[in-house]
């Protein structure tokens, strides 16, 4: 079936689902495949549960007698083509967001600020890959005036794939750092891949990017693009600085000679750039200064991203969604500068660092020796291979067992590690 005809069927539906356990009445089911599942096998079930159509790519699950089952060559490619076709039909102004650190928080802040003036669609959670991006685009409706689309990658070429699906009109790379080095091969590979967003916009022509002015890596690859700049250097489109961070970020920002101060619910001075990006983009699209400040002061982060949690016994800074050398060092430096008694750092392995993993974990351990925290608890085999005198535990279960026998009391605890280390389970024990 040609994409135009399939799109016509899609417009008859109340959205699209790829999960046979979630089949809203009148929706379209599209059968994806993975290592442990085959969505084609659930096509008939999806129709019985209320879907209007089911799209499959294996002939044995289609039948000429059932026109509600649509056969295509490849369901994943069809999903991506359908999303691109839909995006083009609606023509919504779109901002592409990528980067090593901060892209999810920045995306949330941008959407919150733009939401003060526009009807905004934005990426939910971490739906930022080759499946999540098209699913997000297919949620676009005519009433949406803007879209903020997060794009993630852990291998070369992935951002290129995503930008050709989403076709953003504007772009922002939050930063580049040492993450997913196992997939990218090198730090230069990270820069090239994130830069695929700039490449697309450069080829498109007359495109605008929002850029952190003090980042030498981004400036180097931003040639040929219109740059709207933010940072801490005077005279930029938006200039900002940290006022305090104890523990929540309070910052000031200045544009066109007018200054404002904002108290946020964001933990960490490293969130300054994320907030300034949202200010810059909000102003670019005409959101009033007062509304920008209101949006940023009202935003509360979720999903284990720099959350402040008060338990009966301790105060926790939970940043257990992701970890790489750049974000780990930023979190530790911020924790070191915080005014708090009885600081305890519980850190889990940083994943996907490839051959440089041992070196990067040792750098973290060496920095920890300078921090003077009351207690450091390292979790996972990568930290276990470093040279240090800090406590070490095999996994989160060992930590939970220790805390059950010897609870922490009256401490300020930083919990940070890659998501697969499952440190997000620790707050229940603290």
TrEMBL record:
GO molecular function: ligase activity
Main location: cytoplasm
Family statement: Belongs to the MurCDEF family. MurF subfamily.
Listed Gene3D superfamilies: Mur ligase, C-terminal domain (3.90.190.20), Mur-like, catalytic domain (3.40.1190.10), MurE/MurF, N-terminal domain (3.40.1390.10)
UniProt keyword annotations, A-Z: ATP-binding, Cell cycle, Cell division, Cell shape, Cell wall biogenesis/degradation, Cytoplasm, Ligase, Nucleotide-binding, Peptidoglycan synthesis
PANTHER family named among the record's database cross-references: UDP-N-ACETYLMURAMOYL-TRIPEPTIDE--D-ALANYL-D-ALANINE LIGASE
Record's subcellular location: Cytoplasm
Protein's pathway: Cell wall biogenesis; peptidoglycan biosynthesis
Domain Mur ligase central: 97-281
Role: Involved in cell wall formation. Catalyzes the final step in the synthesis of UDP-N-acetylmuramoyl-pentapeptide, the precursor of murein.
Binding site for ATP: 99-105
Organism encoding this protein: Bacteroides mediterraneensis
Domain Mur ligase N-terminal catalytic: 14-84
Listed name of the protein: UDP-N-acetylmuramoyl-tripeptide--D-alanyl-D-alanine ligase
Matches recorded under SUPFAM superfamilies: MurD-like peptide ligases, catalytic domain (SSF53623), MurD-like peptide ligases, peptide-binding domain (SSF53244), MurE/MurF N-terminal domain (SSF63418)
Domain Mur ligase C-terminal, residue spans: 305-418
E.C. code: 6.3.2.10
Reaction(s) catalysed (UniProt annotation): D-alanyl-D-alanine + UDP-N-acetyl-alpha-D-muramoyl-L-alanyl-gamma-D-glutamyl-meso-2,6-diaminopimelate + ATP = UDP-N-acetyl-alpha-D-muramoyl-L-alanyl-gamma-D-glutamyl-meso-2,6-diaminopimeloyl-D-alanyl-D-alanine + ADP + phosphate + H(+)
């Amino acid at each position: 079936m040609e994409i135009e005809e399939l799109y016509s069927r899609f417009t008859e539906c109340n959205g699209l689902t790829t999960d046979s356990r979630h089949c809203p009445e009148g929706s379209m089911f599209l059968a994806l495949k993975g290592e442990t599942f085959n969505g084609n096998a659930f096509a008939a079930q999806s129709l019985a549960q209320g879907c209007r159509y089911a799209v499959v790519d294996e002939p044995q699950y289609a039948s000429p007698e059932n026109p509600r089952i649509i056969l295509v060559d490849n369901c994943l490619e069809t999903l991506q083509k359908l999303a691109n076709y839909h995006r083009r039909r609606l023509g919504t102004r779109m901002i592409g967001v990528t980067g090593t650190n901060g892209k999810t928080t920045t995306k949330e802040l941008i959407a919150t600020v733009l939401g003060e003036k526009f009807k905004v669609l934005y990426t939910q959670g971490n739906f930022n890959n080759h499946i999540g991006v098209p699913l997000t685009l297919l949620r676009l409706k005519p009433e949406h005036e803007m879209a903020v689309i997060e794009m993630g990658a852990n291998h070369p070429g992935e951002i290129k794939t995503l930008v050709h699906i989403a076709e953003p009109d504007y772009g922002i790379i939050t930063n580049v750092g040492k993450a997913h080095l196992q997939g990218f091969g090198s730090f230069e590979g990270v820069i090239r891949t994130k830069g695929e967003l700039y490449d697309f916009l450069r080829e498109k022509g007359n495109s605008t990017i929002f850029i952190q002015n003090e980042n030498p890596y981004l400036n180097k690859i931003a040639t040929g693009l219109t740059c709207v700049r933010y940072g801490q250097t005077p005279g930029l489109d938006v200039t900002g600085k940290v006022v305090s961070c104890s523990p929540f970020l309070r910052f000031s920002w200045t544009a066109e000679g007018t200054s404002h101060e904002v108290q946020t619910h964001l933990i960490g001075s490293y969130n300054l750039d994320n907030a300034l990006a949202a200010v810059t983009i909000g102003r670019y699209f005409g959101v009033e200064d007062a509304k920008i400040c209101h949006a940023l002061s009202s935003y509360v982060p979720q999903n284990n991203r720099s959350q402040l949690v008060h338990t009966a016994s301790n105060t926790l800074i939970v940043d257990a969604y992701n970890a790489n050398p750049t974000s780990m060092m930023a979190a530790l430096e911020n924790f070191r500068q915080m005014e708090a008694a009885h600081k305890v750092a519980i850190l889990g392995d940083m994943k996907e660092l490839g051959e440089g993993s041992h070196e990067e974990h040792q750098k973290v351990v060496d920095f920890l020796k300078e921090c003077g925290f009351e207690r450091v608890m390292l979790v996972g085999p990568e930290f276990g291979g470093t040279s240090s005198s800090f406590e070490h535990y095999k996994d989160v279960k060992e930590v939970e067992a220790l805390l059950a026998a010897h609870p922490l009391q009256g401490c300020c605890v930083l919990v940070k590690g890659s998501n697969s280390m499952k440190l997000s389970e620790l707050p229940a024990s603290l």
